TrEMBL record:
Residues 32-460 form the Glycosyl hydrolase family 13 catalytic domain. PANTHER family: ALPHA-AMYLASE FAMILY MEMBER, NEUTRAL AND BASIC AMINO ACID TRANSPORT PROTEIN RBAT. GO terms for biological process: oligosaccharide catabolic process. Transmembrane segments: none annotated. InterPro entries: GH (IPR017853), GH13_cat_dom (IPR006047), Glyco_hydro_b (IPR013780), O16G_dom_2 (IPR045857). This is Alpha amylase, catalytic domain protein. One of its GO terms (molecular function) is alpha-amylase activity. The keyword ATP-binding does not apply. Belongs to the glycosyl hydrolase 13 family.
Length: 605
């Protein structure tokens, strides 16, 4: 049953994603919770479901509509829960199924929906399906991507892997299993074997599990790397680079492996699988939300997959804008970038869904560093607050559904770790060992700088609720420390200080969320990029009927003067700004201050 919200839906006369009537989520805001770092109630150093329930009033007051939970299923926690060993149970680290039912009930009382993370490209190697799959005579034998050793090589020895693919977490993407005498594919950790979606029994089991959760009361799924489920094979079912395959693999890179992504992302049966899922799980249900994490998906493909006429997903997370400061070869290597480059990527996503489909808007999540440290300024209080607000305006004023990651509404920053033993993230630790110790392509000093800038643990430090010893994440006298260190700046950045401060980052986010709820132009107005003549300034308009809202952001720590089209825009009324004295009329004032950002409704010409 659809959860009731304390807001008005968009009128059907306003076009959103092309559906009729408009979907309930078209003027909603989603808040992502990383459960192990949100709120600990039992003093074990890990957040839990009861902790989320205890903070629902905070989330309802912020104004968000949907809570997306990173995985809380039973798991060995090799990759912090993205390695699932039982889809129909809660890991004891987070609580019980009863705790989950209580969270659902209490969230629904407050008009909040709960969306769970769905990880079905792979399972844990401790899942019963995988254990059974080790037996070639078991019905589960073909549920994963099993392959024999390369002919002429001793199984389990270097060079015997079926092809040269590397794992995104470092090392080979193949792991030898002595019990079966074959290798299995894992695009991520060796404890995360890829499911074989070519097998109809696999898909049936996944759909049955999804229906089980929806029947229990959850409101939808965020689908982890869902665009990697269809692999490219030749006519005989061989992967690229396998002996006898008709498909040629890519060359190996500097780490000694080839890249599987072009052959695993957006594969030939991607649309078929997603449409089948929609029919088997969601048809006949109301009030749900589906969003897919979409590595390898272009903006144009986003339009197709999210077009309601095609019956696949409601929205996707695209990543081209998140790589604007990284080289294509490695997320750990910087490249020069400008705010104009960032808006170019965002504009491509916006333009692609101008007619059909929908966009997911995000700058932070559990896999990305804190955006205020990445693209803002965390070196001073003034710079941090102003740049956090500028980035919030960038997030919330585009067309689509904004996703706020826990602590983003406070302006939380990177952890600034300085030693490898402070990290907990498997990807970061493996990358250091492979790039520094195994291949020597990076020095320890330069790799540590890369981890401090881009490492995923930057987003995973405990939520900063107050200025107490452990930031209110757990009790100050807890018997054990949090699973990962609390950011020392929690004494300066925390919810307790910001909630009642009208000038705080929190209050700014709250106002932006309210604008999306109440202003159809913000929720669904057409997007158009405005040329600024300055690569540090981002500007765009949102237009609906006779109304236009202009957003202008100086995404830099220095003054910036606009030129060209931006100077010719009509004056208007400021709706929201991150400074006390916003420029407003660019034709007469001419210069934007550091990190200055505002949105104004322009006067009709």
């Amino acid at each position: 049953m659809m959860t009731s919200f304390n807001r008005e839906p968009l009128p059907d006369a306003v076009r959103t994603n092309g559906a009729s009537p408009n979907p309930w989520w078209s003027n909603a805001v989603v808040y992502q919770i990383y459960p192990r770092s949100f709120q600990d109630t039992n003093g074990d150093g890990f957040g839990d479901l009861k902790g989320i329930t205890s903070r629902l009033d905070y989330l309802a007051d912020l104004g968000v509509d949907v809570l997306w939970l990173s995985p809380v299923y039973r798991s060995p926690q090799d990759d912090n829960g993205y390695d699932i060993s039982d889809y129909r149970d809660i890991d004891p680290l987070f609580g019980t199924l009863d705790d989950m039912d209580e969270l659902l009930a209490e969230a629904h009382k407050r008009g909040l929906k709960i969306v769970m993370d769905l990880v079905v490209n792979h399972t844990s190697d401790e899942h019963a399906w995988f254990e059974a799959s080790k037996d070639k005579d078991d019905p589960h034998a073909d549920w994963y991507w099993w392959r024999p050793a390369r002919p002429g090589h001793e199984p389990g020895t270097p060079g015997a892997e079926p092809n040269q693919w590397g794992s995104y977490f470092g090392g080979s993407a193949w792991e030898y299993c002595p019990e079966r005498g074959e290798y299995y594919l894992h695009q991520f950790s060796k404890k995360q074997p890829d499911l074989n979606w070519e097998n109809p029994a696999v898909r049936r089991a996944v759909y049955d599990m999804m229906n089980w959760w929806l029947d229990r009361g959850i409101d939808g799924f965020r689908m982890d790397v869902i665009t990697l489920i269809s692999k490219r094979t030749d006519a005989n079912g061989r992967l690229p680079g396998e002996t006898g395959s008709e498909l040629q693999d890519l060359p190996v890179g500097e780490e000694g492996y080839s890249n599987p992504n072009p052959f695993c992302a957006d594969g030939p049966r991607q649309d078929e699988f997603l449409a089948e899922m929609r029919r088997e799980v969601f048809d006949g249900r109301d009030g749900f939300l589906t969003v897919g994490e979409a590595p390898g998906i272009t903006a144009e493909r986003n339009e197709h997959i999210t077009d309601p006429a095609n019956g696949e997903l409601d929205m996707l997370f695209l990543f081209e804008h998140m790589g604007v400061d990284q080289t294509p070869e490695s997320k750990w290597d910087d490249k020069p970038w400008t705010p104009a480059d960032l808006e170019t990527k965002l504009a491509e996503q916006q333009d692609a869904i101008a007619r059909h489909g929908w966009a997911s808007l995000f700058l932070d999540n559990h896999d990305q560093p804190r955006v205020v440290s990445r693209w803002g300024d965390d070196t001073s209080k003034t710079g941090r607050i102003r740049s956090a607000k500028a980035l919030a305006l960038l997030l919330h004023m585009h067309r689509g559904t904004p996703y706020v990651y826990q602590g983003e509404e406070l302006g939380m920053t990177n952890a600034h770790f300085t030693s490898l033993d402070q990290y907990r993230d498997l990807e970061s630790i493996n990358a250091y060992h492979q790039r520094v110790e195994e291949t020597g392509i990076r020095t320890s000093e330069t790799m540590m700088r890369s981890l401090a800038r881009y490492g995923r643990d930057n987003a995973r430090t405990p939520m900063q609720w107050d200025d107490s010893t452990y930031a209110g994440f757990t009790m100050p006298d807890a018997p054990v420390e949090p699973w990962i260190a609390v950011n020392p700046n929690h004494t300066e950045i925390n919810a307790a200080d910001e909630i009642d401060d009208p000038d705080s980052v929190y209050s700014f986010h709250k106002r932006l969320i309210a604008l999306r709820h109440t202003d159809p132009v913000v929720a669904a107005g057409d997007y158009r990029r405005v040329e600024t003549g300055n690569d540090r300034i981002i500007a765009f308009t949102r237009t609906l009927d006779e109304r236009t809202i202009l957003t202008v952001i100086n995404l830099s720590p220095t003054q910036a003067a606009p030129a060209g089209e931006l100077e010719t825009m009509p004056d208007g009324t400021i709706l929201i700004a991150n400074t006390d004295d916003p420029v407003g009329n660019l034709k007469t004032t001419g210069t934007l201050g550091p990190w200055e950002a505002f949105a104004m409704e322009t006067d009709p010409e």
